[in-house]
Every structure is written in structure tokens, then in C-alpha cells.
Amino acid sequence: MTEQEPHLGAVTDIISQQPEGPERSIVDRVRTQQKHSESADNTLDLDIPGYDGQLFARYGLVEGKKIQMISDKAQREYKNLADRALVAAQDTIIEACQEIFFRDPDEVDSEGKPKEISIAAYMTEQGEEGWDYPVRFDDKLAEFFRWGPDDTDGSARNVLYKVFGKNDVAVANHNLILSRWMADPSRDPMGGLLGELGA
After folding, report:
1. Lowest mean per-residue pLDDT among 16-20, 28-32, 41-45
2. Is 131 exposed, middle or buried (0-12, 13-18, 19+ CB in 10 A)?
């Protein structure tokens, strides 16, 4: 009698019964990581330095071509490399920012953590008008801090710079963390950062 070839189902059964070797396990991990990358959260909440964790910004991803436009603009505006780097960092943070929040230590959420409140929502609750859109690094944030025109001249860069205590390093480090996250939203942007900075 002629031996019959196994049908497709039998072949599948044979394959599925094979023990997983190193090659298959690494392939499975890569495939799983790819799915994880696709499903990664597209926003990042990042504390703004100098406020003891009470002020933070929510950021979104920025397209690569926009990042290139920011870099090109900084090069056109400034000849000094340090100035270019600072302005590019500021503009990247401004472009990525979706909204700014604060944490109220006197109110807690269901998990016992300080309640997160958007500045726009807070000002609206206080009966103020004109706060029906997200507050970013803009004139509304300056108004929230009760800064006058002489403090920031209304520009987003100057508002951001003052929020960061006019500290170039604080701006640069904040942008570094933000850029690491945008490069791979599936990973913790703080992971290994101290080692990279030589700490």
C-alpha cells in the first residue's frame, strides 16, 4: 500500500508539537515586542523641574519632518551652537506639549494619589472666562502665573523659559527625556538615563 502524504492539518499538528528552540523563542519575543510597540501609549506625562512634582506637561508624538523643520529653523536664526541647541529644545517641547496640569496634594484620586487637574479646567471652575481650551506654554500659562507682558512678551519660548526657571540645562534635560520617549514610546524614557549621563 502506498504511504499517504499527511494532510495540511497533520502538518500543522506536527509543527505545533515541536519544542521551542532558541530561534523560535527570540522570534516570538520580537513579534510580541512589535505588537507592544504598536499599542504603546502615545502620550507622556513629564514633570516640569523646579515644582516638586506638582506641575507637569502632557506630551504627544511629533513627526520626524516637523523635528527637522525645528532644527532647520534654529540653524537659520542662530549662529552659536549653544543657542541653536536651546532654541531647538524649546521648540520641540512646545510642539509636543498637549496640555499642562498640576497635582493637588490636598485632594487624592481613587488610588490615593494627588489629584491631577488641568489648568484650563481649574480656571474655568474658578469662574474665569476664556479657558475653554488646553493651556500649553502660551500666554494663558503666563496669565495663570500672573506674569505681565514684561515678563515673557507673550512668546511661547519665553513662557517656557521662565517656567523652567531660565535654566538652560533643565530645558535640555527635559527635551532629552522627551526625545528618548518619542524615539520609542514603548520603553521607559528614564531607563538607563543616569548611566548615559555618566552619573
Report:
1. 16-20
2. buried
- What gap in Å lies between CA 83 and CA 76, rounded to an integer? 11
- Is this structure's pTM higher than 0.90? no
Region of 7 please: left (phi>0), alpha (psi -120 to 50) or beta: beta
**Which region holds residue 10: left if phi is over 0, alpha if psi is between -120 and 50, else beta?**
alpha
CB atoms within 10 A of CB 92: 23
Residues 189 and 180: their CA atoms lie apart, in Å, by 5
Average pLDDT in the chain:
84
DSSP per-residue codes, 3-49: PPPPPHHHHHHHHHTSPP-HHHHHHHHHHHHHHHHHTS-SEEEEEPT
Query: If you average pLDDT over residues 84-94, what whole number do you get?
Result: 98
CB neighbour burial string for 180-199, b if at least 16 within 10 angstroms, e if fewer: bbbeebeeebeeeeeeeeee
Q: Give the residues across from 102 on adjacent strands.
A: 55, 117
Q: Helices 64-77 & 81-96, crossing angle to 10 degrees?
A: 140
Contact 95, 62 (CB under 8 A): yes
What are the start-end ranges of the E strands in the chain? Answer: 43-47, 55-60, 97-108, 114-118
